Every structure is written in C-alpha cells, then in structure tokens.
Amino acid sequence: SHFPECVIVVAASIVSSKQKWKEFFTRYYKPAIQQLAVSDARTKSLTVEFQDIVKFDVRLSEELLSNPGKVLKDAEDALPLVDLPVKRKVSAFVRIVKIPRKMQVRDLRSDHINTFVSIEGTVRKITDVRPRIINAAFECARCGNILYLPQEGTGKFLEPSYCPCNEEKKGVFRLLFKESTFEDYQRIKIQESPEDLKGGEQPQTLDINVSNDLAGIATPGERIVVNGILRSIQKINRDGKTVYFDIYMDCNSIEFEEQEFDELEITPEDEEAILKLSRDPNIFKKITNSIAPSIYGYDEVKEAIALQLFSGIVKNLPDGTRIRGDIHVLLVGDPGIAKSQILRYVVNLAPRGVYASGKSASSAGLTAAAVKDDFDGSWTLEAGALVLADKGIAAIDEIDKMKPEDRSALHEAMEQQSISVAKAGILATLKCRCALLGAANPKLGRFDPFDNIADQINMPPSLMSRFDLIFILQDKPDEKRDASIAGHILKSHYAGELNAHKLVDNSSITDEALAEAMKPIKPDIDSNLLRKYIAYAKRKIFPIMTDEARERITKFYLELRKPGEAENSPIAVTARQLEGLVRLSEASARMRLSDRVTPEDVERTINIIMTSLKQVGMD
Ligand code: ADP
Ligand code: MG
C-alpha cells in the first residue's frame, strides 16, 4: 500500500529545479524581471524573498538551503526562460533575502558547510574592491589555440597544463587579459554584534567573499545580514605541516539593518510593564539603583550613567548640521575604586555596549585604521571600538593611555560622531554614533591631594571639553564610608559564596536564604526589563523643551559664564556645556517617558553638572 506514495516522490524529483524556478519566476516575479529586462545596468540582480519560495513550493525552499550551489545555478539558468512581453533575454544574479532563521557566527558547525546560511553581524573589516578573474583565457604558444579555464574562486589561480595540440608534452601558455572575464571582488570580515554577546564573550568573526554588485556596498561598523553558502578551505599552519580547515562564506546577498532586527523585541506585555514602571514616582531613583548595585556609593556617577543610557535627542538642522544626542562621561580616579567594574557593568546593561581598553585595543585602535591584511597583504579598512559601538555605548577603560593616532581621531569621533580615514589609497568616513564612557587614572597613577587636580589629568583640554560630564574620584580614607564599602563588598561576596555552594549542595541552602543574601546587590529593576525600557524610550520618546525649562537653562548658563568663575579651569565653559545641559535634560525627561522637558529635569541636570564641576576644581 506504500507503493503509490513512492511513485509520487520519484515523479516529483524528476521535475528539475530549473523548471520549477521558471514557474516560480513567472508566477511571482514577472514585473521585476520585466524591469530588469529593460534596465541597462552593468550587473543585474533579482532579489527574491525566501518566504515567496516557501509559499510556492516548500520542497524547493528546503532544497535551496541544503544544496544551494546547484539550486541557485538552476535559478539563474531559468531566469532567461521566463516569457516576457519584451523579447529580451534577462540574465541576472538571483539574490535570496529574508531567510527567517538567522544565525550567529558562533553557531556555525561542520553540518552547515556547503549549505545556505543567514548570518547577522557587524562589519569589522573590508578590503578594497578589486577585479577577480573568473574565466581565464590562455593562448597556447605552440598552436595559437585559445583555451578557457573557469576559476573556482578559492584564491588559487588555475592554469592549464596540456593543450590538445600535443597531449604528450606540457604546454606553454600566455594569459589573455582581453579574452578573460573578470568580476568585482571584495573580502569583508564580520563579527558578532555587541548586543548578541553575553557578558564578557569575545566576538567571533567570519570572512565573507562578495562579488559583482555586492562588492563595495558595506562599510565597517554597519550591522548587516549576510546570506550565502558556507564553505570550508584547507589551510596550513605556520609550522608548515599541520593542516586545518577554516570556514568562509560565498555571499549571495547582503541585507542592511532595518528596524526588525535592529533592536530588542518588545512584546505587548513588555510594553505594559514599561508603561507601568514609567508612572512610578521614584522611577529615577529606581533606575539609578539598578546600575551596578554591587558597587557601593557613586550616586552621582550612576545618575550620570543612567542619563547616558537614555541619551538626548539627535538634531538634524535644516542647514545640514547635525547635533549629537549622545552623552559622553569621563571618570578620572585613583586605582582600585571600581572604575573598570562600573564600565563592565554598563556594557552588559546597555542594549549595545562595547568594552575596550585604550592600552590594548586592536590594531584598529579605538577609532579605525587602514591596516595590512594578514591574509594577502592588501590594505583593509578596520573598524575600532567606537565604530563597532555605533548606536550604542563604548566603554573605554584607561582612555588616557590610548595611542596618539586615536587621540586626534577621537576629537572628530566624539563631536561629529564619524571617523575619516585617508591612508594607503583608502578614503572613507565611518559612523560612530555612540556615547563614550571613559575611565582614566591620574597622571602619576594616584591623585596628589596637595596639587591642583586639573593638572593631574593626562588629557588635552580640547578632548576634556567634549565630555558632557567629568567625575573626579579620589580614594581618601574616610572611616564611615570605608566601613560601608567593606560591609557592602563582604555582603556581595557572601551572596556569591552561598550561590556557589548551593550549586554543589542544593539542600543545605534554602531559596529564601539565598534570596535574602542577594537582596543588597539586587537591582531595583531587573536588567532585562531595564534594557527594554531604555530601548523603548530611545525608540519612542522625543521630548520637547518647555518655556520654563528653557529659561532655567539660560539663567544657569549665564551664571556659569560670568567672569571670574572659571578662569583657571581646565574646562572652559563654552556653548558646548550649554548643549550638554540640553542633552542631559532631555535624557532626564526620557527616563520617565515624558515628552516634555520640565524645569525639574533641568534642575536635576544642574545638580549633576555642579557636582562634576566642583570636583574638577571649578567652584
Ligand atoms: P579601578 O578600575 O578603579 O582601578 P576596579 O574596577 O578594578 O578598579 O576595582 C577593584 C576592585 O575593588 C573590584 O573588584 C571592585 O569590585 C572593588 N571595589 C572598589 N570600590 C568598590 C565599591 N565602592 N563598591 C564595591 N566594590 C568596590
Ligand atoms: Mg581599572
């Protein structure tokens, strides 16, 4: 009784996938193909949504994923067979987009080799776009015959060894450039995006081969989805003996970030929880208390970071000027006072956080660099931490120890939020629309309390002035505070001990006891919810300044500008501070999801700014 079914299966597989594609294109993509037929673009592509293939024939869609080399070729061969009103043959690349199952680089396994995969990531590096030979024409020196040899694109150049005119003797050949076919080619390296990494994980990378109209369209720092065939390549270790296999992708299509996979998903239930939270009169305190609760004290720093997480509003003015909304914060302080710890916490909390140290950043440094590629020695453009943190927060530890090249690039990066690279023939502008949270030590490692504080910060004033808030953190012995810190640190260690113990011996420690021990270091708002709250605020809330708030800001700014107040300060009070005031006040309004900036928001901002200025020695 199973027999008839078998027959059906066999019959179905006889219909070649080329036939199916012709039918599919005719049914779903005729207008698009018609357009291609009349277009005179040099290279043409037909973009096909995966879901359409599923709708048409699930089996074809599955075959595409499991055997993409053949199926895509069939698709491209089928394209010219589609009957069109204009009698013209269309040949184009078929590019498949919107594959529902997206993977991370770290999820790739040997099973995925030679299948069609869809991978999300941030562009880390790009090479120049160069021609690559795909069909090489050779002239035989003996008989003058021309032989064509398709290149496989594995990086190795293939040459014929014999010509039919003499099969006994190895031939001598000359490559004919005119007769050969070339395509544009580029290699890009993607790495996992910061928001997809769990605390402390190192991002993994994947090399992508892109060609034709896909070459040259991606820029370092951009978040993209690459779809294509995963390949493996045999490589030989530096010792010259051991062989290993590396993976790369032959790219079929690139999708640029859209809202869908841009940010965290917020469900209607989440939204309800967010709106409820926003109506809490203590929302500001609650958010502040949820930042690094295991770190004792630093209320102003935590307030500043809270504002930074929400950020002000980006303004695009009619004359083309763009004013950043991101808030930059700098912590300068003695060693061992939890600066690094705070930075790491923020990176984990922020919807998009990147941590880097000024001392040991990658070859691209903090900003970006043109570097010699380790693979083939060509020049590549590599994104540094600030570019990778585009639309997020870059936490830069030991920023005072950054490389001199970064120092100059940082000026542009912080204010214009872009980085220009002009080196080795590479000319590019990369976006780095991120907030910077920097940490630095005093010049001599520790503050000398008897010397002028401002003189002990190892940063040029021009750079200092680009921070909206600077905090000076001195580690002065203070019995009461020290006792509290000790108490708090010991409490968190105790909670950690109970937790570790419970993992190996569940019975001796009750859930209640553990919860009780965790209480002092538990954030008021769960990090997952807070992350969504922040994303929601940044997506939906664009507050507007009330007249009263504007008056309050003007008054405060004029007071700050009064002569005598700040003459010896390392940070001149300029219009930059005024912009900072606006940004911080907007962020404050955003924190309670309010679309009005009120005098209370300004007051809160003034308090934080005054604390910050006093510490720098500007009172
Ligand atoms: P820094 O980067 O300022 O040199 P770290 O972040 O490396 O310092 O901190 C050193 C250690 O001291 C960390 O384990 C941190 O948790 C602890 N520590 C210092 N100050 C505090 C504090 N106020 N509350 C809790 N832990 C603290
Ligand atoms: Mg440190």
From TrEMBL:
Pfam families: MCM (PF00493), MCM_lid (PF17855), MCM_OB (PF17207), WHD_MCM_arc (PF21120)
Enzyme class: hydrolase
Keyword Heme: no
Record's keyword terms, sorted: ATP-binding, DNA replication, DNA-binding, Helicase, Hydrolase, Nucleotide-binding
One example of a Gene Ontology biological process annotation: DNA replication initiation
InterPro entries linked: MCM, MCM_4, MCM_dom, MCM_lid, MCM_OB, NA-bd_OB-fold, P-loop_NTPase, WH-like_DNA-bd_sf
Protein's organism: Methanocella conradii (strain DSM 24694 / JCM 17849 / CGMCC 1.5162 / HZ254)
Cross-referenced PROSITE patterns: MCM_2
Listed name of the protein: Replicative DNA helicase Mcm
One term of GO molecular function: single-stranded DNA binding
Domain MCM C-terminal AAA(+) ATPase intervals: 283-489
Family: Belongs to the MCM family.
Enzyme Commission (EC) number: 3.6.1.-
Entry GO CC: MCM complex
